[in-house]
Write a structure and sequence with these properties.
heterodimer; A: about 300 residues; 8-stranded mixed β-sheet; 4-stranded antiparallel β-sheet; about 25% strand; globular; B: mainly alpha; MetI-like fold; about 0% strand
Chain lengths: ~300, ~325
Protein backbone atom coordinates (compact mmCIF):
# COMPACT_ATOMS: atom_id res chain seq x y z
CA UNK A 1 0.00 0.00 0.00
CA UNK A 2 1.69 3.15 -1.13
CA UNK A 3 0.86 6.35 0.70
CA UNK A 4 -2.00 8.32 -0.76
CA UNK A 5 -0.66 11.57 -2.17
CA UNK A 6 -0.47 14.26 0.44
CA UNK A 7 -0.95 11.86 3.35
CA UNK A 8 1.51 12.30 6.20
CA UNK A 9 3.14 9.04 7.12
CA UNK A 10 2.53 7.87 10.69
CA UNK A 11 6.23 7.52 11.28
CA UNK A 12 8.88 9.19 9.20
CA UNK A 13 12.49 8.43 10.01
CA UNK A 14 14.85 10.55 8.00
CA UNK A 15 18.64 10.24 7.88
CA UNK A 16 18.80 8.71 11.33
CA UNK A 17 22.27 8.05 12.66
CA UNK A 18 23.09 6.46 15.98
CA UNK A 19 26.56 6.64 17.43
CA UNK A 20 27.83 4.96 20.58
CA UNK A 21 30.55 6.53 22.63
CA UNK A 22 32.81 3.70 23.68
CA UNK A 23 36.16 2.97 25.19
CA UNK A 24 38.67 0.73 23.48
CA UNK A 25 41.25 -1.54 25.10
CA UNK A 26 43.57 1.35 25.85
CA UNK A 27 40.64 3.20 27.43
CA UNK A 28 40.63 5.78 24.69
CA UNK A 29 37.23 7.09 23.88
CA UNK A 30 36.00 6.56 20.36
CA UNK A 31 32.71 6.73 18.56
CA UNK A 32 31.06 3.77 17.00
CA UNK A 33 28.46 4.56 14.42
CA UNK A 34 25.94 1.74 14.31
CA UNK A 35 23.18 3.33 12.25
CA UNK A 36 23.99 5.73 9.45
CA UNK A 37 21.57 7.85 7.49
CA UNK A 38 18.77 5.43 7.85
CA UNK A 39 15.43 6.42 6.35
CA UNK A 40 12.10 4.64 6.50
CA UNK A 41 8.51 5.71 6.53
CA UNK A 42 5.52 3.85 7.88
CA UNK A 43 2.05 4.78 6.71
CA UNK A 44 -1.15 4.33 8.54
CA UNK A 45 -2.59 0.87 8.14
CA UNK A 46 0.47 -0.72 6.63
CA UNK A 47 2.98 -3.30 7.63
CA UNK A 48 6.54 -2.34 6.93
CA UNK A 49 8.86 -5.28 7.20
CA UNK A 50 12.47 -4.56 8.00
CA UNK A 51 14.85 -7.29 6.94
CA UNK A 52 18.58 -7.66 7.04
CA UNK A 53 21.15 -9.80 8.73
CA UNK A 54 22.07 -9.57 12.40
CA UNK A 55 23.95 -6.45 13.34
CA UNK A 56 22.38 -4.36 10.63
CA UNK A 57 20.75 -2.05 13.16
CA UNK A 58 17.20 -3.35 13.08
CA UNK A 59 16.58 -3.55 16.81
CA UNK A 60 18.45 -0.33 17.44
CA UNK A 61 16.05 1.46 15.11
CA UNK A 62 13.18 0.20 17.28
CA UNK A 63 14.88 1.44 20.41
CA UNK A 64 15.71 4.78 18.80
CA UNK A 65 12.10 5.35 17.83
CA UNK A 66 11.00 4.64 21.39
CA UNK A 67 13.77 6.76 22.88
CA UNK A 68 15.24 3.81 24.75
CA UNK A 69 18.83 3.87 23.59
CA UNK A 70 21.42 3.74 26.36
CA UNK A 71 22.89 6.95 27.69
CA UNK A 72 26.10 6.65 25.65
CA UNK A 73 24.19 6.79 22.36
CA UNK A 74 23.92 9.94 20.30
CA UNK A 75 21.10 10.25 17.82
CA UNK A 76 21.04 12.57 14.85
CA UNK A 77 18.59 12.97 12.01
CA UNK A 78 14.87 13.45 12.17
CA UNK A 79 12.06 11.29 13.43
CA UNK A 80 8.51 12.47 12.90
CA UNK A 81 5.44 10.87 14.37
CA UNK A 82 2.22 12.07 12.74
CA UNK A 83 4.22 14.87 11.19
CA UNK A 84 5.52 16.09 14.53
CA UNK A 85 9.07 15.84 15.79
CA UNK A 86 9.69 12.90 18.13
CA UNK A 87 11.37 14.64 21.02
CA UNK A 88 12.46 12.68 24.09
CA UNK A 89 9.52 14.03 26.08
CA UNK A 90 7.09 13.12 23.32
CA UNK A 91 8.63 9.68 23.08
CA UNK A 92 8.02 9.27 26.78
CA UNK A 93 4.39 10.29 26.34
CA UNK A 94 3.81 7.96 23.42
CA UNK A 95 5.64 4.91 24.72
CA UNK A 96 3.32 2.09 25.57
CA UNK A 97 0.26 4.09 24.56
CA UNK A 98 0.70 5.16 20.92
CA UNK A 99 3.82 3.18 20.11
CA UNK A 100 4.23 -0.32 21.50
CA UNK A 101 7.16 -2.67 21.32
CA UNK A 102 6.99 -6.43 21.00
CA UNK A 103 10.46 -7.50 22.08
CA UNK A 104 12.19 -10.62 20.90
CA UNK A 105 12.91 -12.75 23.91
CA UNK A 106 11.70 -13.94 27.27
CA UNK A 107 14.44 -11.87 28.92
CA UNK A 108 12.21 -8.86 28.32
CA UNK A 109 9.85 -10.17 30.98
CA UNK A 110 10.57 -9.54 34.64
CA UNK A 111 11.72 -12.93 35.96
CA UNK A 112 10.00 -12.43 39.30
CA UNK A 113 6.56 -11.27 38.21
CA UNK A 114 3.68 -13.46 37.15
CA UNK A 115 3.02 -13.32 33.42
CA UNK A 116 -0.59 -12.17 33.61
CA UNK A 117 0.29 -9.34 35.92
CA UNK A 118 3.02 -8.21 33.55
CA UNK A 119 0.84 -8.32 30.48
CA UNK A 120 -1.79 -6.24 32.21
CA UNK A 121 0.83 -3.82 33.36
CA UNK A 122 -0.18 -4.04 37.00
CA UNK A 123 -3.07 -2.19 38.59
CA UNK A 124 -5.95 -2.20 36.12
CA UNK A 125 -8.63 -4.77 36.94
CA UNK A 126 -10.49 -3.88 33.76
CA UNK A 127 -7.54 -5.19 31.80
CA UNK A 128 -8.05 -8.73 33.08
CA UNK A 129 -10.76 -9.50 30.56
CA UNK A 130 -8.76 -8.00 27.73
CA UNK A 131 -5.69 -9.95 28.79
CA UNK A 132 -7.66 -13.23 28.92
CA UNK A 133 -9.10 -12.54 25.48
CA UNK A 134 -5.66 -11.83 24.08
CA UNK A 135 -4.28 -15.02 25.65
CA UNK A 136 -7.12 -17.03 24.20
CA UNK A 137 -6.48 -15.57 20.81
CA UNK A 138 -2.84 -16.61 20.89
CA UNK A 139 -3.66 -20.06 22.13
CA UNK A 140 -2.28 -19.48 25.60
CA UNK A 141 -3.97 -21.51 28.33
CA UNK A 142 -5.45 -19.62 31.23
CA UNK A 143 -2.94 -21.22 33.67
CA UNK A 144 -0.21 -19.33 31.93
CA UNK A 145 -1.18 -16.03 33.45
CA UNK A 146 -0.18 -17.35 36.87
CA UNK A 147 3.18 -18.61 35.62
CA UNK A 148 6.57 -16.98 35.87
CA UNK A 149 8.53 -16.18 32.72
CA UNK A 150 11.06 -18.97 33.26
CA UNK A 151 8.24 -21.49 33.10
CA UNK A 152 7.29 -20.49 29.56
CA UNK A 153 8.59 -22.05 26.39
CA UNK A 154 10.14 -19.73 23.84
CA UNK A 155 7.03 -19.80 21.71
CA UNK A 156 4.75 -19.11 24.65
CA UNK A 157 6.93 -16.20 25.72
CA UNK A 158 6.74 -14.67 22.26
CA UNK A 159 2.99 -14.95 22.20
CA UNK A 160 2.81 -13.39 25.64
CA UNK A 161 4.99 -10.54 24.43
CA UNK A 162 2.84 -9.99 21.38
CA UNK A 163 -0.29 -9.88 23.50
CA UNK A 164 1.20 -7.00 25.50
CA UNK A 165 1.38 -4.92 22.32
CA UNK A 166 -2.13 -5.85 21.26
CA UNK A 167 -3.44 -5.00 24.69
CA UNK A 168 -1.82 -1.60 24.70
CA UNK A 169 -4.06 -0.37 21.92
CA UNK A 170 -1.11 1.39 20.33
CA UNK A 171 -1.36 2.78 16.80
CA UNK A 172 2.16 1.78 15.92
CA UNK A 173 3.44 -1.63 16.89
CA UNK A 174 7.10 -2.39 16.51
CA UNK A 175 7.49 -6.16 16.51
CA UNK A 176 11.12 -7.16 16.98
CA UNK A 177 11.51 -10.65 15.50
CA UNK A 178 8.23 -12.06 16.76
CA UNK A 179 8.36 -15.41 14.97
CA UNK A 180 11.57 -17.41 15.57
CA UNK A 181 10.89 -20.43 17.71
CA UNK A 182 7.24 -20.54 16.83
CA UNK A 183 5.65 -23.39 14.98
CA UNK A 184 4.67 -22.63 11.39
CA UNK A 185 0.98 -22.46 12.26
CA UNK A 186 1.39 -20.14 15.17
CA UNK A 187 3.84 -17.98 13.27
CA UNK A 188 1.29 -17.72 10.51
CA UNK A 189 -1.43 -16.89 13.04
CA UNK A 190 0.73 -14.21 14.50
CA UNK A 191 1.34 -12.76 11.08
CA UNK A 192 -2.39 -12.81 10.42
CA UNK A 193 -2.92 -10.92 13.66
CA UNK A 194 -0.52 -8.24 12.50
CA UNK A 195 -2.35 -8.11 9.20
CA UNK A 196 -5.68 -7.72 10.99
CA UNK A 197 -4.23 -4.98 13.16
CA UNK A 198 -2.94 -3.20 10.07
CA UNK A 199 -6.24 -3.60 8.27
CA UNK A 200 -7.99 -2.05 11.25
CA UNK A 201 -5.87 1.07 10.72
CA UNK A 202 -2.88 0.37 12.94
CA UNK A 203 0.64 0.32 11.65
CA UNK A 204 3.19 -2.38 12.21
CA UNK A 205 6.93 -2.39 11.83
CA UNK A 206 7.92 -6.00 11.54
CA UNK A 207 11.57 -6.60 12.19
CA UNK A 208 12.51 -10.03 10.92
CA UNK A 209 15.03 -12.38 9.41
CA UNK A 210 12.34 -14.31 7.67
CA UNK A 211 11.95 -12.46 4.37
CA UNK A 212 9.58 -15.02 3.01
CA UNK A 213 7.14 -14.72 5.89
CA UNK A 214 7.51 -10.95 5.89
CA UNK A 215 6.77 -10.64 2.19
CA UNK A 216 3.68 -12.75 2.54
CA UNK A 217 1.94 -10.24 4.79
CA UNK A 218 3.86 -6.97 4.66
CA UNK A 219 3.01 -4.09 2.36
CA UNK A 220 6.55 -2.90 1.93
CA UNK A 221 9.93 -4.28 2.83
CA UNK A 222 12.96 -2.25 3.86
CA UNK A 223 16.31 -3.96 3.49
CA UNK A 224 18.98 -2.96 6.00
CA UNK A 225 22.67 -3.43 5.49
CA UNK A 226 25.42 -2.29 7.83
CA UNK A 227 23.10 0.07 9.68
CA UNK A 228 21.44 1.77 6.78
CA UNK A 229 18.53 1.27 4.41
CA UNK A 230 19.74 0.04 1.04
CA UNK A 231 16.34 -0.52 -0.46
CA UNK A 232 12.68 -0.05 0.25
CA UNK A 233 10.45 -2.04 -2.04
CA UNK A 234 6.88 -3.18 -2.26
CA UNK A 235 6.54 -6.67 -0.85
CA UNK A 236 5.34 -7.97 -4.19
CA UNK A 237 8.69 -7.07 -5.76
CA UNK A 238 10.21 -9.81 -3.64
CA UNK A 239 7.81 -12.36 -4.95
CA UNK A 240 8.09 -11.05 -8.51
CA UNK A 241 11.74 -12.04 -8.72
CA UNK A 242 15.25 -10.72 -8.84
CA UNK A 243 14.61 -8.33 -11.71
CA UNK A 244 11.95 -6.44 -9.76
CA UNK A 245 14.42 -5.65 -6.99
CA UNK A 246 16.76 -2.69 -7.12
CA UNK A 247 19.81 -3.06 -4.91
CA UNK A 248 22.50 -5.72 -5.51
CA UNK A 249 22.25 -6.75 -1.85
CA UNK A 250 18.49 -7.30 -2.11
CA UNK A 251 19.07 -9.35 -5.21
CA UNK A 252 21.70 -11.38 -3.38
CA UNK A 253 19.29 -11.90 -0.49
CA UNK A 254 16.70 -13.04 -2.96
CA UNK A 255 19.07 -15.52 -4.52
CA UNK A 256 20.00 -16.84 -1.09
CA UNK A 257 16.45 -17.94 -0.37
CA UNK A 258 16.08 -21.72 -0.57
CA UNK A 259 13.41 -21.64 -3.28
CA UNK A 260 15.49 -19.24 -5.40
CA UNK A 261 18.65 -21.24 -5.64
CA UNK A 262 20.05 -21.05 -2.09
CA UNK A 263 23.15 -19.26 -3.34
CA UNK A 264 25.09 -17.60 -0.52
CA UNK A 265 26.87 -14.31 -0.97
CA UNK A 266 30.61 -14.29 -0.34
CA UNK A 267 32.05 -11.92 2.23
CA UNK A 268 30.52 -10.42 5.34
CA UNK A 269 28.76 -7.31 6.47
CA UNK A 270 31.24 -4.56 7.45
CA UNK A 271 31.69 -4.18 11.18
CA UNK A 272 30.21 -1.01 12.61
CA UNK A 273 33.57 0.43 13.63
CA UNK A 274 35.04 -0.15 10.21
CA UNK A 275 32.58 1.16 7.65
CA UNK A 276 33.82 2.15 4.19
CA UNK A 277 33.04 5.59 2.87
CA UNK A 278 30.37 5.58 0.25
CA UNK A 279 28.31 2.50 -0.39
CA UNK A 280 28.54 0.01 2.49
CA UNK A 281 28.10 -2.92 0.15
CA UNK A 282 31.07 -2.20 -2.19
CA UNK A 283 33.30 -4.93 -0.78
CA UNK A 284 30.84 -7.61 -1.83
CA UNK A 285 29.36 -6.00 -4.93
CA UNK A 286 29.97 -7.11 -8.52
CA UNK A 287 28.97 -3.75 -9.95
CA UNK A 288 31.56 -1.80 -8.00
CA UNK A 289 33.01 1.32 -9.71
CA UNK A 290 35.01 4.26 -8.31
CA UNK A 291 31.76 6.17 -8.08
CA UNK A 292 30.58 3.85 -5.32
CA UNK A 293 33.10 5.38 -2.92
CA UNK A 294 31.22 8.66 -2.88
CA UNK A 295 28.31 9.41 -0.60
CA UNK A 296 25.28 7.75 -2.05
CA UNK A 297 21.82 9.12 -1.37
CA UNK A 298 18.64 7.12 -1.19
CA UNK A 299 16.77 7.76 -4.43
CA UNK A 300 13.35 6.94 -5.77
CA UNK A 301 13.24 4.23 -8.39
CA UNK A 302 10.34 2.31 -9.87
CA UNK A 303 7.99 3.02 -6.98
CA UNK A 304 10.53 2.12 -4.32
CA UNK A 305 13.77 3.63 -3.14
CA UNK A 306 17.33 2.44 -3.38
CA UNK A 307 20.77 3.52 -2.27
CA UNK A 308 22.85 2.47 -5.28
CA UNK A 309 24.17 4.39 -8.27
CA UNK A 310 23.94 1.39 -10.54
CA UNK A 311 20.39 0.36 -9.82
CA UNK A 312 18.01 0.64 -12.67
CA UNK B 1 4.12 -31.65 55.86
CA UNK B 2 5.46 -33.40 52.79
CA UNK B 3 8.09 -36.11 52.85
CA UNK B 4 10.35 -33.76 50.94
CA UNK B 5 10.19 -31.11 53.62
CA UNK B 6 10.88 -33.62 56.40
CA UNK B 7 13.87 -34.87 54.49
CA UNK B 8 15.07 -31.32 54.10
CA UNK B 9 14.72 -30.62 57.81
CA UNK B 10 16.51 -33.83 58.70
CA UNK B 11 19.37 -33.01 56.40
CA UNK B 12 19.60 -29.50 57.83
CA UNK B 13 19.79 -30.83 61.39
CA UNK B 14 22.48 -33.29 60.39
CA UNK B 15 24.53 -30.51 58.87
CA UNK B 16 24.05 -28.35 61.94
CA UNK B 17 25.15 -31.07 64.36
CA UNK B 18 28.24 -31.94 62.35
CA UNK B 19 29.06 -28.24 62.24
CA UNK B 20 28.72 -27.95 66.00
CA UNK B 21 30.99 -30.95 66.63
CA UNK B 22 33.61 -29.47 64.31
CA UNK B 23 33.36 -26.02 65.88
CA UNK B 24 33.63 -27.36 69.42
CA UNK B 25 36.72 -29.45 68.61
CA UNK B 26 38.35 -26.54 66.84
CA UNK B 27 37.51 -24.07 69.59
CA UNK B 28 38.74 -26.46 72.27
CA UNK B 29 41.96 -27.03 70.38
CA UNK B 30 42.52 -23.31 70.16
CA UNK B 31 41.83 -22.74 73.86
CA UNK B 32 44.22 -25.41 75.10
CA UNK B 33 46.95 -24.33 72.72
CA UNK B 34 46.68 -20.71 73.84
CA UNK B 35 49.61 -19.47 75.95
CA UNK B 36 47.25 -18.37 78.70
CA UNK B 37 47.25 -20.60 81.74
CA UNK B 38 43.70 -20.65 83.11
CA UNK B 39 44.90 -21.24 86.67
CA UNK B 40 47.20 -18.23 86.49
CA UNK B 41 44.38 -16.19 85.04
CA UNK B 42 42.06 -17.36 87.81
CA UNK B 43 44.26 -16.76 90.83
CA UNK B 44 46.10 -13.83 89.37
CA UNK B 45 49.75 -14.34 88.44
CA UNK B 46 51.26 -12.08 91.08
CA UNK B 47 49.38 -13.28 94.15
CA UNK B 48 51.41 -15.41 96.49
CA UNK B 49 49.51 -18.60 95.98
CA UNK B 50 51.35 -21.77 96.83
CA UNK B 51 51.92 -24.58 94.36
CA UNK B 52 49.62 -26.82 96.37
CA UNK B 53 46.78 -24.35 96.26
CA UNK B 54 47.26 -23.92 92.55
CA UNK B 55 46.93 -27.66 92.12
CA UNK B 56 43.75 -27.61 94.15
CA UNK B 57 42.34 -24.91 91.91
CA UNK B 58 43.32 -26.88 88.80
CA UNK B 59 41.73 -30.02 90.25
CA UNK B 60 38.60 -28.09 91.16
CA UNK B 61 38.09 -26.93 87.56
CA UNK B 62 39.27 -30.25 86.18
CA UNK B 63 42.26 -28.60 84.55
CA UNK B 64 44.69 -31.31 85.73
CA UNK B 65 43.34 -33.91 83.35
CA UNK B 66 44.77 -34.38 79.84
CA UNK B 67 43.09 -32.29 77.11
CA UNK B 68 41.43 -35.21 75.34
CA UNK B 69 39.75 -36.37 78.51
CA UNK B 70 38.67 -32.83 79.34
CA UNK B 71 37.05 -32.51 75.95
CA UNK B 72 35.14 -35.76 76.32
CA UNK B 73 33.94 -34.86 79.80
CA UNK B 74 32.75 -31.54 78.43
CA UNK B 75 31.09 -33.19 75.43
CA UNK B 76 29.33 -35.78 77.63
CA UNK B 77 27.98 -33.11 79.94
CA UNK B 78 27.04 -31.00 76.96
CA UNK B 79 24.96 -33.78 75.47
CA UNK B 80 23.25 -34.16 78.84
CA UNK B 81 22.35 -30.47 78.64
CA UNK B 82 24.99 -29.17 81.02
CA UNK B 83 27.24 -26.57 79.43
CA UNK B 84 29.55 -26.49 82.43
CA UNK B 85 30.55 -23.67 84.71
CA UNK B 86 32.33 -20.53 83.65
CA UNK B 87 35.68 -20.09 85.39
CA UNK B 88 35.49 -16.34 84.87
CA UNK B 89 32.02 -15.69 86.23
CA UNK B 90 31.67 -18.74 88.48
CA UNK B 91 28.19 -19.19 87.08
CA UNK B 92 26.70 -21.87 84.84
CA UNK B 93 27.71 -21.15 81.25
CA UNK B 94 24.12 -21.43 80.08
CA UNK B 95 23.11 -18.69 82.50
CA UNK B 96 25.96 -16.38 81.46
CA UNK B 97 25.16 -16.89 77.79
CA UNK B 98 21.44 -16.42 78.26
CA UNK B 99 21.91 -13.12 80.09
CA UNK B 100 24.63 -11.81 77.82
CA UNK B 101 22.88 -12.91 74.70
CA UNK B 102 19.82 -10.87 75.54
CA UNK B 103 21.89 -7.73 75.88
CA UNK B 104 23.83 -8.53 72.73
CA UNK B 105 20.70 -9.35 70.82
CA UNK B 106 19.33 -5.87 71.43
CA UNK B 107 22.59 -4.43 70.19
CA UNK B 108 23.03 -6.74 67.21
CA UNK B 109 19.37 -6.64 66.26
CA UNK B 110 19.28 -2.86 66.17
CA UNK B 111 22.54 -2.71 64.26
CA UNK B 112 21.35 -5.37 61.83
CA UNK B 113 18.07 -3.66 61.02
CA UNK B 114 19.76 -0.29 60.81
CA UNK B 115 22.54 -1.47 58.48
CA UNK B 116 20.11 -3.39 56.30
CA UNK B 117 17.68 -0.52 55.83
CA UNK B 118 20.28 2.18 55.51
CA UNK B 119 22.45 0.11 53.16
CA UNK B 120 19.53 -0.85 50.97
CA UNK B 121 18.19 2.69 50.69
CA UNK B 122 21.64 4.13 49.95
CA UNK B 123 22.25 1.40 47.38
CA UNK B 124 18.95 2.00 45.60
CA UNK B 125 19.43 5.76 45.48
CA UNK B 126 22.99 5.41 44.20
CA UNK B 127 21.93 2.84 41.62
CA UNK B 128 19.04 4.88 40.28
CA UNK B 129 21.07 8.07 40.05
CA UNK B 130 24.14 6.27 38.80
CA UNK B 131 27.00 8.59 37.90
CA UNK B 132 25.47 11.59 39.63
CA UNK B 133 27.09 13.55 42.44
CA UNK B 134 24.78 11.75 44.85
CA UNK B 135 25.96 8.37 43.60
CA UNK B 136 29.60 9.32 43.81
CA UNK B 137 29.04 10.68 47.30
CA UNK B 138 27.40 7.48 48.49
CA UNK B 139 30.06 5.34 46.84
CA UNK B 140 32.88 7.28 48.44
CA UNK B 141 31.14 7.15 51.80
CA UNK B 142 30.74 3.38 51.51
CA UNK B 143 34.32 2.81 50.42
CA UNK B 144 35.58 4.82 53.37
CA UNK B 145 33.27 2.95 55.71
CA UNK B 146 34.27 -0.46 54.48
CA UNK B 147 37.92 0.32 55.06
CA UNK B 148 37.31 1.68 58.55
CA UNK B 149 37.81 -0.67 61.50
CA UNK B 150 34.70 -0.82 63.67
CA UNK B 151 36.55 -0.26 66.94
CA UNK B 152 38.27 2.85 65.61
CA UNK B 153 34.98 4.26 64.41
CA UNK B 154 33.52 3.44 67.81
CA UNK B 155 36.30 5.40 69.48
CA UNK B 156 35.66 8.35 67.16
CA UNK B 157 31.95 8.30 67.91
CA UNK B 158 32.70 8.05 71.62
CA UNK B 159 35.07 11.01 71.48
CA UNK B 160 32.66 13.15 69.55
CA UNK B 161 29.21 12.29 70.90
CA UNK B 162 29.94 11.03 74.40
CA UNK B 163 32.98 13.01 75.52
CA UNK B 164 32.81 16.24 73.50
CA UNK B 165 29.08 16.72 73.04
CA UNK B 166 27.95 14.59 76.01
CA UNK B 167 24.87 13.48 74.13
CA UNK B 168 25.30 9.83 74.96
CA UNK B 169 26.73 7.85 77.89
CA UNK B 170 30.32 6.71 77.57
CA UNK B 171 29.78 3.06 78.34
CA UNK B 172 27.71 0.19 79.68
CA UNK B 173 24.16 -0.85 78.86
CA UNK B 174 22.53 1.03 81.72
CA UNK B 175 23.38 3.93 84.06
CA UNK B 176 25.87 3.09 86.79
CA UNK B 177 24.54 2.56 90.27
CA UNK B 178 21.02 1.64 89.33
CA UNK B 179 19.33 -1.65 90.07
CA UNK B 180 18.53 -3.52 86.90
CA UNK B 181 14.84 -3.41 87.76
CA UNK B 182 14.90 0.39 87.90
CA UNK B 183 16.48 0.93 84.52
CA UNK B 184 13.93 2.38 82.10
CA UNK B 185 13.56 1.42 78.47
CA UNK B 186 14.56 4.95 77.49
CA UNK B 187 17.83 4.61 79.37
CA UNK B 188 18.53 1.28 77.73
CA UNK B 189 17.92 2.76 74.30
CA UNK B 190 20.07 5.76 75.14
CA UNK B 191 22.92 3.43 76.00
CA UNK B 192 22.30 1.34 72.91
CA UNK B 193 22.54 4.09 70.29
CA UNK B 194 26.29 4.61 69.95
CA UNK B 195 27.35 0.95 70.05
CA UNK B 196 24.65 -0.14 67.63
CA UNK B 197 25.49 2.72 65.30
CA UNK B 198 29.12 1.62 65.32
CA UNK B 199 28.20 -1.96 64.72
CA UNK B 200 25.70 -1.15 61.96
CA UNK B 201 28.07 0.98 59.98
CA UNK B 202 30.29 -1.97 59.08
CA UNK B 203 27.34 -3.67 57.40
CA UNK B 204 26.04 -0.62 55.55
CA UNK B 205 28.82 -0.40 53.00
CA UNK B 206 28.58 -3.99 51.79
CA UNK B 207 24.81 -3.93 51.40
CA UNK B 208 24.82 -0.51 49.75
CA UNK B 209 27.56 -1.32 47.24
CA UNK B 210 26.10 -4.70 46.28
CA UNK B 211 22.59 -3.31 46.02
CA UNK B 212 23.85 -0.44 43.87
CA UNK B 213 25.65 -2.79 41.49
CA UNK B 214 22.70 -5.14 41.20
CA UNK B 215 20.32 -2.26 40.59
CA UNK B 216 22.60 -0.96 37.84
CA UNK B 217 22.42 -4.40 36.21
CA UNK B 218 18.65 -4.44 36.59
CA UNK B 219 18.31 -0.93 35.17
CA UNK B 220 20.21 -2.08 32.08
CA UNK B 221 18.22 -5.29 31.76
CA UNK B 222 15.89 -6.17 28.94
CA UNK B 223 12.88 -6.26 31.21
CA UNK B 224 13.54 -2.75 32.46
CA UNK B 225 13.83 -1.60 28.86
CA UNK B 226 10.53 -3.27 28.10
CA UNK B 227 8.93 -1.66 31.15
CA UNK B 228 10.02 1.73 29.82
CA UNK B 229 8.84 0.79 26.34
CA UNK B 230 5.46 0.16 27.84
CA UNK B 231 5.35 3.63 29.26
CA UNK B 232 6.33 2.93 32.84
CA UNK B 233 8.11 5.85 34.46
CA UNK B 234 11.45 5.53 36.18
CA UNK B 235 10.52 5.26 39.86
CA UNK B 236 7.38 3.14 39.40
CA UNK B 237 9.42 0.82 37.20
CA UNK B 238 12.14 0.63 39.84
CA UNK B 239 9.52 -0.13 42.46
CA UNK B 240 7.77 -2.72 40.34
CA UNK B 241 10.69 -4.51 38.72
CA UNK B 242 13.76 -3.28 40.53
CA UNK B 243 13.19 -3.81 44.23
CA UNK B 244 12.14 -7.45 44.00
CA UNK B 245 15.07 -8.31 41.78
CA UNK B 246 17.71 -6.60 43.88
CA UNK B 247 16.31 -7.96 47.12
CA UNK B 248 17.94 -11.34 46.60
CA UNK B 249 21.57 -10.30 46.94
CA UNK B 250 20.64 -7.88 49.69
CA UNK B 251 18.88 -10.60 51.66
CA UNK B 252 21.71 -13.05 51.24
CA UNK B 253 24.26 -10.50 52.33
CA UNK B 254 22.13 -9.32 55.18
CA UNK B 255 21.64 -12.77 56.65
CA UNK B 256 25.14 -13.91 55.86
CA UNK B 257 26.34 -10.84 57.73
CA UNK B 258 25.30 -12.55 60.97
CA UNK B 259 28.88 -13.73 61.31
CA UNK B 260 30.34 -10.29 60.79
CA UNK B 261 27.78 -8.93 63.18
CA UNK B 262 29.00 -11.35 65.80
CA UNK B 263 32.62 -10.55 65.14
CA UNK B 264 31.91 -6.84 65.09
CA UNK B 265 30.01 -6.98 68.34
CA UNK B 266 33.08 -8.37 70.09
CA UNK B 267 34.98 -5.21 69.13
CA UNK B 268 32.13 -2.75 69.57
CA UNK B 269 31.17 -4.16 72.95
CA UNK B 270 34.77 -3.95 74.07
CA UNK B 271 35.03 -0.28 73.07
CA UNK B 272 31.78 0.66 74.77
CA UNK B 273 32.22 -1.75 77.71
CA UNK B 274 28.84 -3.06 76.70
CA UNK B 275 28.06 -6.16 78.76
CA UNK B 276 27.10 -8.47 75.91
CA UNK B 277 28.21 -11.81 74.59
CA UNK B 278 31.11 -10.30 72.68
CA UNK B 279 32.46 -8.79 75.84
CA UNK B 280 32.08 -12.11 77.64
CA UNK B 281 33.91 -13.86 74.81
CA UNK B 282 36.85 -11.49 75.11
CA UNK B 283 37.04 -12.03 78.84
CA UNK B 284 36.71 -15.80 78.48
CA UNK B 285 39.55 -15.76 75.97
CA UNK B 286 41.79 -13.72 78.26
CA UNK B 287 41.10 -16.04 81.18
CA UNK B 288 41.41 -19.31 79.26
CA UNK B 289 37.82 -20.05 80.27
CA UNK B 290 37.27 -23.10 78.07
CA UNK B 291 33.65 -23.92 79.02
CA UNK B 292 32.45 -20.38 78.42
CA UNK B 293 34.40 -19.99 75.18
CA UNK B 294 33.09 -23.30 73.87
CA UNK B 295 29.59 -22.31 74.84
CA UNK B 296 29.88 -18.98 73.07
CA UNK B 297 31.47 -20.60 70.02
CA UNK B 298 28.62 -23.08 69.75
CA UNK B 299 26.09 -20.34 70.30
CA UNK B 300 27.57 -18.17 67.58
CA UNK B 301 27.77 -21.14 65.21
CA UNK B 302 24.05 -21.78 65.71
CA UNK B 303 23.43 -18.07 65.26
CA UNK B 304 25.32 -17.85 61.97
CA UNK B 305 23.86 -21.13 60.75
CA UNK B 306 20.38 -19.79 61.44
CA UNK B 307 21.20 -16.64 59.51
CA UNK B 308 22.24 -18.59 56.43
CA UNK B 309 19.27 -20.91 56.74
CA UNK B 310 16.90 -17.96 56.92
CA UNK B 311 18.54 -16.46 53.85
CA UNK B 312 17.89 -19.69 51.97
CA UNK B 313 14.28 -19.85 53.08
CA UNK B 314 13.56 -16.23 52.18
CA UNK B 315 15.34 -16.70 48.88
CA UNK B 316 12.88 -19.45 48.04
CA UNK B 317 9.96 -17.27 48.97
CA UNK B 318 11.13 -14.36 46.83
CA UNK B 319 12.46 -16.14 43.77
CA UNK B 320 10.11 -18.59 42.06
CA UNK B 321 12.99 -20.02 40.02
CA UNK B 322 14.80 -21.26 43.09
CA UNK B 323 11.54 -22.54 44.53
CA UNK B 324 11.05 -24.57 41.38
CA UNK B 325 14.56 -26.00 41.48
CA UNK B 326 14.15 -27.00 45.10
CA UNK B 327 10.90 -28.80 44.55
CA UNK B 328 12.36 -30.72 41.63
CA UNK B 329 15.75 -31.37 43.11
Amino acid sequence: MNPAPGQTPLLDVHDLSVTFRMYDKTLRQHNLQVISELSVTVNQGEILAIAGSSGSGKSLLAHAVLGLLPANATVSGRMLYQGQELTPSRQEQLRGKEIALTPQAVTYLDPLLRVGDQVRGGNKTAAVTAQREAFQRYDLQSEIEAMFPFQLSGGMARRVLVSTAVLSGARLIIADEPTPGLGADIAQDMMNTFRELADSGKSVILITHDIELACAIADRVAIFYGGTTVEVAAAKDFTAGEAALRHPYSKALYRALPQNGFRPLAGFQPYAGNLPTGCLFTARCGLKTPECNKKIPLRELRGGSVRCVHAT
Amino acid sequence: MSKNALLHIGWTLLRLSSLLVAVSILAFGLVISSPIDPVDAYVGSESGVSQEQRQNVAAYWGLDKPPGERYFIWARNMLAGDMGTSITYRLPVSQVIAERFQTSLALMGTAWVLSGLLGFILGVVAGVYRGSVLDRGIKTFCLILSSTPAFWLGLLLLTLFAVRLEWFPIALAAPIGKLSGEVTLGERIHHLILPSLTLSITGVAAIALHTRQKLIDVMASDYMLFAYARGEKKWPAVRRHGIRNIMLPAITLQFASFSELFGGSVLAEQVFSYPGLGNAATLAGLRGDAPLLLGIALCSAVFVFTGNLLANIIYCLVDPQIREERSHG
